[in-house]
C-alpha cells in the first residue's frame, strides 16, 4: 500500500472552516462552550473535540494587512515522537504512513502531548484519554478521502498518493514563486500532511520552522531504554557470576563464643 | 531465640525498610510494564495498562514518605563517608570482588552500602520530583516536562542495579543478613564481620543489646 498525503495549499484557503466542521461531523465531535479571543479563530486552539482548526492571523505588510489562514491538524510524521513515547501502543503507524489512534488503548499518560513537536495531541480530562486527528482512517481505509478534504470547496485540501501530492506541491510552489515553499517532506522523516506555504514558515503562528523529535525523547527512548536493560541484565548476570566464582561471604565464624577470643 | 544474638535494627527501621522495598519493587515492575512494549504483559494480572499506571502512581505515594523517613533514619550512619578508613575500603572493594586478607574494618555500613543509600536517596528524590511532574504535567512549561521522562528513566538505570546488588548481598551473597531486617537480630560473628567498628563502639559504650 502506498503512502498517502494530505496536501494543504494555503494559497487556496479562504478560511471558510468547512474542513473544521466536516471533521466534527464525521468524527461526531459536538462543539462545546467557547469564548471570543478577538479573532475569527474559534475555538481558540485545538481541543480534544476539535481535531483541526483554521488559524486566523493578521500580518502587516507594506502598510496593508495580510490575512493568513492555516488549516492546523496532526502532521502524521513518519518519525513520529508520539508513537515513539506511547507506552500502550494506542498511537501507531498505519499502512498509509499516517498516525492512527486507538483510543481504547490510551491510558491518559499525556506523554505524547509533550513529545509532539507540533503540540497536536490534546488531553481530555473527562475520559482521561488523548484525542487527535487520525486522518479519517475509517474513510481512507474504505477508499474515501478524509472528511476535511471532502468538504474543502476551493481545492486547498487534496488527498492522494505521496509522489503525486509532492509533485503537485512543488509545481504549485514554482507557480507561486516568491517566499512560497513546500513544508513537511524534509523533516521528521516526512510528514503525511504537507503544506504549500505562500509565505515563509516563520510567518505562521505556532508553526515550528525546524520541527524535530525532541532530544529528550531521543535520550529517553533511544539511549536510556537500551542502557537500562543492559545495566539490569549486567547486574543480574554479574551477581550470578560473583556467586559461582567468588562465592558468598563467610559470616559464620567459629560459633558465637569464639569471637570473644579475638581471632577471625 | 538463641543466646548471644545482637540487635542491629529497631522496629521503625524495619518498617521503613520494607515499605521502601515493597513500594520500590511494585514501582519497578509496573514501571517496566509501561516503559517497554515487550513488558506490557505485566499489566495483564492488573487488568490493563491503565490500572498499571494507577498502581504505579499510588505506590509512588507510599514511596515518598518511606524515602523521606529512610533518609532521616539512615543519613548519619550511611550517608557520610568515614575517611580515611572508607578510602582504604574502596581501594580493595571491601574484599567483595577479589580475595583480600584483612579487609578494612567498617562501621555500621560499609562504603558499598553507603553508595547504595546515597544513590537511592538522590535518585529517589529525582524519581519523586519527575514522577509528580509526569503525573500532573498540564500547564507546566513543555521543555521542562519533556526532560522529566529521560530523568525518570535515568533513575531506573541507576536504582535497579543498586537494588539488585542489595538484594543479592542481603540474601545469598552474605548469609545471615536477612534477619537484620526481619527480626533485627543477627549472630555475633555476622556483626563482627559486617560491622566490627560499630560492634566495638557499642560494646564500649554499653549500648549493645544482646539476647539472653
Keywords:
heterodimer; A: 264 residues; alpha+beta; Alpha-Beta Plaits; 2 domains; four-stranded mixed sheet; two-stranded antiparallel sheet; 7 helices; elongated; B: 212 residues; mainly alpha; Fumarate Reductase Cytochrome B subunit; 8 helices; 2 strands
Could you walk me through the main structural features you see in this protein, from its secondary elements to its overall organization?
The complex is a heterodimer of chains A (264) and B (212). Chain A has a 4-stranded mixed beta sheet with strand order 8-1-10-9. Chain A has a two-stranded antiparallel sheet with strand order 2-3. Chain A folds into 2 domains: 210 residues, Alpha-Beta Plaits; 34 residues. Helices cover 28% and strands 19% of the residues of chain A. The longest helix of chain A is centred in the C-terminal third of the chain and has 31 residues. In chain A, 37% of the residues are buried. With 264 residues, chain A is an alpha+beta fold. Chain B is mainly α and 212 residues long. Chain B has a domain of 143 residues: Fumarate Reductase Cytochrome B subunit, CATH 1.20.950. Helices cover 65% and strands 2% of the residues of chain B. Chain B starts with 5 loop residues before the first strand and ends in a 7-residue tail after the last helix. The relative contact order of chain B is 0.15. At the A-B interface, helix 3 and helix 7 of A face helix 2, helix 5 and helix 7 of B.
Helix content estimate of chain A: 25-40%
Query: Distance between the terminal alpha carbons of chain A, to the nearest Å?
Result: 75 Å
The appropriate CATH architecture of the largest domain in chain A is: 2-Layer Sandwich
Instruction: Write down the oligomeric state.
Output: heterodimer
What fraction of residues of chain B sit in β-strands? under 5%
Shape of chain A: elongated
The spatial strand order of the largest sheet of chain A comes to 8-1-10-9
CATH class of the domain at 10-81 and 108-178 in chain B: Mainly Alpha
Number of E strands of chain B? 2
Integer count of domains of chain A: 2
- The radius of gyration computed from the alpha-carbon positions of chain A, rounded to a whole number of angstroms, is 27 Å
Q: For the record, what is the CATH homologous superfamily label of the domain at 10-81 and 108-178 in chain B?
A: Transmembrane di-heme cytochromes, Chain C
Roughly how many Å apart are the termini of chain B? 8 Å
Series of H and E elements of chain B: EHHHHHHEHH
Task: Kindly provide the radius of gyration of chain B, computed on alpha-carbon positions and rounded to a whole number of angstroms.
Answer: 20 Å
Amino acid at each position: 500500500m502506498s503512502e498517502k498525503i494530505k496536501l494543504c495549499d494555503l494559497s487556496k484557503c479562504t478560511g471558510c472552516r468547512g474542513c473544521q466542521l466536516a471533521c466534527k461531523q464525521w468524527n461526531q465531535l459536538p462543539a462545546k462552550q467557547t469564548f471570543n479571543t478577538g479573532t475569527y479563530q474559534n475555538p481558540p486552539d485545538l481541543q480534544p473535540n476539535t481535531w483541526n482548526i483554521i488559524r486566523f492571523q493578521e500580518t502587516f505588510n507594506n502598510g496593508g494587512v495580510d490575512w493568513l489562514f492555516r488549516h492546523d491538524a496532526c502532521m502524521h510524521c513518519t518519525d513520529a515522537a508520539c508513537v515513539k513515547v506511547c507506552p500502550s501502543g494506542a498511537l501507531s503507524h498505519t499502512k498509509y504512513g499516517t498516525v492512527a489512534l486507538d483510543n481504547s488503548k490510551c491510558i491518559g499518560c499525556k506523554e505524547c502531548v509533550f513529545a509532539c513537536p507540533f503540540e497536536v495531541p490534546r488531553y481530555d480530562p473527562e475520559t482521561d484519554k488523548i484525542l487527535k486527528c487520525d486522518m479519517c482512517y475509517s474513510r481512507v481505509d474504505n477508499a474515501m478521502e478524509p472528511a476535511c478534504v471532502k468538504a474543502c470547496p476551493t481545492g486547498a485540501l487534496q488527498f492522494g498518493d505521496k509522489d503525486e501530492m509532492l509533485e503537485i506541491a512543488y509545481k504549485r510552489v514554482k507557480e507561486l514563486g516568491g517566499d512560497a515553499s513546500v513544508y513537511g517532506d524534509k523533516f521528521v522523516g516526512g510528514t503525511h500532511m504537507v503544506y504549500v506555504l505562500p509565505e515563509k514558515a516563520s510567518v505562521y503562528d505556532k508553526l515550528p520552522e525546524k520541527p524535530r523529535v525532541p532530544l529528550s525523547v531521543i535520550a529517553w527512548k533511544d539511549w536510556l531504554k537500551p542502557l537500562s536493560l543492559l545495566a539490569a541484565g549486567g547486574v543480574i548476570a554479574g551477581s550470578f557470576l560473583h556467586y559461582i566464582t567468588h562465592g558468598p561471604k563467610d559470616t559464620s565464624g567459629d560459633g558465637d563464643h569464639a569471637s570473644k577470643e579475638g581471632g577471625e | 531465640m538463641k543466646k548471644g544474638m545482637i540487635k542491629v535494627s529497631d522496629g521503625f527501621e524495619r518498617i521503613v525498610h520494607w515499605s521502601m522495598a515493597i513500594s520500590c519493587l511494585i514501582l519497578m515492575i509496573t514501571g517496566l510494564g509501561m516503559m517497554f512494549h515487550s513488558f506490557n504483559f505485566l499489566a495483564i494480572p492488573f487488568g490493563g495498562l491503565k490500572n498499571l499506571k494507577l498502581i504505579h502512581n499510588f505506590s509512588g505515594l507510599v514511596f515518598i514518605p518511606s524515602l523521606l523517613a529512610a533518609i532521616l533514619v539512615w543519613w548519619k550512619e550511611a550517608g557520610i563517608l568515614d575517611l580515611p578508613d572508607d578510602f582504604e575500603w574502596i581501594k580493595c572493594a571491601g574484599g567483595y570482588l577479589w580475595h583480600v586478607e584483612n579487609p578494612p574494618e567498617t562501621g555500621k555500613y560499609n562504603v558499598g552500602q553507603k553508595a547504595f543509600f546515597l544513590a537511592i536517596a538522590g535518585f529517589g528524590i529525582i524519581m519523586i520530583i519527575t514522577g509528580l511532574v509526569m503525573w500532573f504535567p498540564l500547564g507546566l512549561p513543555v521543555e521542562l516536562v519533556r526532560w522529566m521522562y529521560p530523568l525518570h528513566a535515568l533513575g531506573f538505570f541507576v536504582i535497579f542495579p543498586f537494588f539488585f546488588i542489595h538484594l543479592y548481598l542481603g540474601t545469598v551473597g552474605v548469609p545471615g543478613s536477612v534477619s537484620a531486617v526481619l527480626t533485627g537480630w543477627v549472630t555475633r560473628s555476622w556483626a563482627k564481620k559486617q560491622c566490627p567498628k560499630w560492634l566495638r563502639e557499642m560494646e564500649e559504650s554499653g549500648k549493645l543489646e544482646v539476647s539472653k
